[in-house]
């Protein structure tokens, strides 16, 4: 098995874009969940 260092370095860009995309999607999911919780959450009775 041969390891091509330049191919690995060239693919780091695509790996970074993929990880950034995953981070953005997770952030959107968290934001939507928080908004839905604020909208649908009833007032707490004591």
Secondary-structure map with pairings?
Layout: H1 5-40
How would you characterize the overall build of this protein?
- The mean pLDDT is 92.
- With 46 residues, this protein is an all-alpha fold.
- Helix content is 78%, strand content 0%.
- The protein is built from 1 helix and no strands.
- It is rod-shaped.
- It has one helix at residues 5-40.
Q: Give the rounded overall mean pLDDT.
A: 92
Instruction: Please give the share of residues in helix.
Output: over 70%
Multimeric status of the protein: single chain
* Structural classification: mainly alpha
Tell me the overall shape: rod-shaped
Please report the number of helical segments. 1
Low-confidence stretches: none
**How large, in whole angstroms, is the Cα Rg?**
21 Å
Strand content: under 5%
Largest sheet: none
Total number of beta strands: 0
| H/E element order | H
Distance between the termini: 67 Å
